[in-house]
Specification:
Elements lengths: L4 E8 L2 E7 L8 E6 L7 E3 L10 E7 L2 E6 L2 E5 L7 E3 L9 E8 L2 E9 L23 E8 L7 E3 L10 E7 L2 E6 L2 E5 L8
Antiparallel strand pairs: 1-2, 2-3, 3-4, 5-6, 6-7, 7-8, 9-10, 10-11, 11-12, 13-14, 14-15
C-alpha cells in the first residue's frame, strides 16, 4: 500500500478506496489505493496518475465521481481513480491544502487550510523559516463550495461568516453541514451561507 498513514477508507461501487499519506516530510509516499477483491490486491494511484500531490487526506464519492483532498488542492476522477483532474486556488478553492470533503445533495464542500509563514520553506533551507506570529497566515483557507460536482468553487472564510478560516473537517448529516476549525465547531442549515 502507498504511504504509511491511512487517512480515510471509502466503500464505493463495490471497491475499497484508501486515502493515504507519508509520515514526516516524506512527500513521495501516499496516494489513493483501490481494491476490488476485498483487499487481497491493490491498485495505487498517485502523481503519476495526475493527482496534484501524494498526500491524500480524504476521499469521497460525489455521484459517480471520486473526489480526493490533497496537500496541493483536490482532484476529481470519473474513471474510478485511474486518472485525475486537479483543482486548486485558481479554480476558486480557498487554500492550497484541502483536508476534508463532504457532499450534501448536489453541493460539494471542501475544508481548506492556509499556509502560515512557518511552512514557507524549501526542503534544504530550514534557516529561512520565520517565526510564526499569532494569527499570521499567508493564505487563508476556508470552506469552499461547488455546485457543479467539483469543477468550480466559491470560497467562504472568516471575512464572511465562518468562525475561522482554517477548516480541518467537513461533515454532513440530514440538511446540516458541520465544520471543525482551529476555533471550534459550527453548523449551517443553508448550505454554508450562514453559520451558528
Amino acid at each position: 500500500l502507498p504511504g504509511t498513514q491511512i487517512n480515510k477508507v471509502l466503500l464505493f461501487s463495490g471497491s475499497i478506496y484508501l486515502a493515504t499519506s507519508g509520515l514526516g516530510l516524506n512527500v513521495d509516499e501516499g496516494g489513493v489505493a483501490s481494491s476490488s477483491d476485498g483487499g487481497s490486491s491493490w491498485l495505487v494511484y498517485n502523481t503519476n496518475n495526475k493527482l496534484p500531490n501524494n498526500w491524500v487526506y480524504d476521499i469521497s464519492a460525489v455521484g459517480s465521481k471520486l473526489v480526493a483532498a490533497t496537500a496541493h488542492g483536490l482532484a476529481t476522477s470519473e474513471n474510478a481513480g485511474v486518472t485525475w483532474t486537479a483543482r486548486n486556488m485558481t479554480d476558486g478553492l480557498g487554500g492550497p491544502i484541502v483536508r476534508s470533503i463532504a457532499s450534501l445533495g448536489s453541493s460539494v464542500f471542501a475544508g481548506c487550510v492556509g499556509v502560515s509563514r512557518l511552512y514557507v520553506k524549501t526542503k534544504t533551507n530550514f534557516d529561512s523559516i520565520s517565526p510564526l506570529k499569532t494569527g499570521e497566515h499567508l493564505l487563508n483557507g476556508g470552506l469552499s463550495v461547488s455546485t457543479d460536482s467539483g469543477v468550480t468553487w466559491t470560497n467562504n472564510d472568516k471575512s464572511t461568516t465562518l468562525l475561522d478560516s482554517w477548516v480541518n473537517r467537513v461533515y454532513t448529516s440530514g440538511s446540516y453541514v458541520y465544520i471543525s476549525t482551529d476555533r471550534g465547531l459550527a453548523r449551517s442549515s443553508n448550505g454554508g451561507t450562514t453559520w451558528e
